[in-house]
Design a protein that fits this description.
The protein has 327 residues and is of the alpha/beta class. The protein has helices spanning 12-19, 122-125, 140-145, 157-168, 186-200, 211-215, 220-235, 265-279, 286-289, 307-325, and strands at residues 33-35, 40-44, 50-52, 58-60, 67-70, 76-78, 81-90, 96-107, 115-120, 175-180, 204-208, 240-244, 282-284. It has two domains: 33-107, Immunoglobulin-like; 115-325, Rossmann fold (3-Layer(aba) Sandwich), CATH 3.40.50.1110.
Length: 327
């Protein structure tokens, strides 16, 4: 029997508890908490399932031992689409916590052709739209003699198009060869094209030519006949053809220096559309892509695009090519 009179008051309760066989209570740990890894996005080159590897969830709290499981463990195959992965933690007191994340498998786009040739005149070449050294009394042919050459210009539509295609089809590295020739007519193009096709051996021809013809007052029917000859030359070699319409021009009376054929664009484009339909090749309506008016997409000379205009040409060809050739 404990004599409580001999103990300090603060020890009385502890002494009584000891006498009764009790011990101080230890607080329980906090329930387990679990944190999942970040969601994953994985590429699939061929559309088949890919293995997804991820870190284990992070767990804190809970009464040891704490176990963790995921309904789809790291290293599992994941099919194209989005899969939710749920992970849970369970401690010795049977308390649980859960979290989830997603694994998204995206099929890498592929394209059925990778060798492209852009064929045409100075618009394909990427000439700068400038009136430098042009006088008001020059003929169109004379203005083209002082056109500033810009070989390999980064803003040319073939260069921009290649960037767009390589960004989307990085595993295939498509190439777009720029075979524009400043000042060329469609008649000259019919003679030059076979050699280009033999040299480049493309799978796809991007054809846009005729501005020099309408600026020299040539008959739209003749332009169409020459383009038809080029289309057939390419198709006889098994080359897929994308035929572009002519761009809108700024008339000279509105301040341009090379917009000699602005009034003839519509008639020529009507003929070009008929060629595309009758030859069953893809029409790339650049005129409509420019809104049918020069605007800011045509530069100061009234004929050649601004840098934004060259990009619009590239984007329009890109949309046509991906719509037809992407797999």
């Amino acid at each position: 029997m404990i004599d409580t009179r001999s103990l300090p008051a603060l020890l009385i309760a502890a002494a009584l508890a000891s006498a009764c066989g009790d011990s101080p209570t230890t607080p329980s740990p906090a329930p387990p908490a679990i944190s999942c890894p970040a969601s994953l996005m994985l590429p699939s080159a061929d559309g088949n399932a890919v293995v997804g590897t991820f870190a284990l969830p992070q767990v804190s709290g809970g009464t040891a031992p704490v176990s963790t499981t995921c309904d789809r463990p790291s290293g599992s195959p994941f099919t194209v689409g989005t899969t939710e992965v749920t992970c849970s933690a369970r401690d010795a007191d049977r308390r649980t916590a859960a979290c989830s994340f997603t694994v998204t498998v995206v099929r890498v786009p592929r394209i059925a052709a990778t060798r492209f040739v852009a064929f045409g005149d100075s618009i394909t070449e990427g000439a700068t739209s400038s009136c430098n050294r042009v006088s008001p009394f020059m003929s169109f042919a004379q203005t083209m003699l002082v056109l500033e050459a810009t070989p390999g210009a980064a803003w040319s539509y073939p260069s921009v198009l290649q960037e767009l295609m390589r960004s989307r089809y990085a595993a295939q590295l498509p190439s777009v060869s720029n075979r524009g020739a400043g000042g060329e007519s469609t008649a000259s193009g019919t003679g030059r094209l076979p050699g280009v096709l033999a040299e480049e051996m493309p799978e796809v021809l991007l054809l846009q030519e005729g501005a020099n013809d309408i600026n020299s007052s040539r008959d739209p029917a003749t332009i169409a006949a020459n383009l038809r000859t080029m289309v057939r030359s390419a198709r006889s070699r098994g080359v897929d053809v994308y035929l572009g319409t002519l761009l809108p021009q700024q008339p000279r009376e509105l301040g341009s220096c090379r917009g000699f054929g602005s009034s003839n664009v519509a008639a020529a484009n009507d003929r070009i559309r008929l060629v595309a339909a009758s030859e069953q090749v893809t029409l790339v309506d650049l005129f409509q892509a420019f809104g049918g008016v020069p605007g800011d997409l045509i530069g100061p000379d009234g004929l050649h695009p601004s840098e934004a205009g060259y990009r619009r040409i590239a984007e329009t060809f890109f949309a046509a090519v991906t719509a037809r050739l992407e797999r």
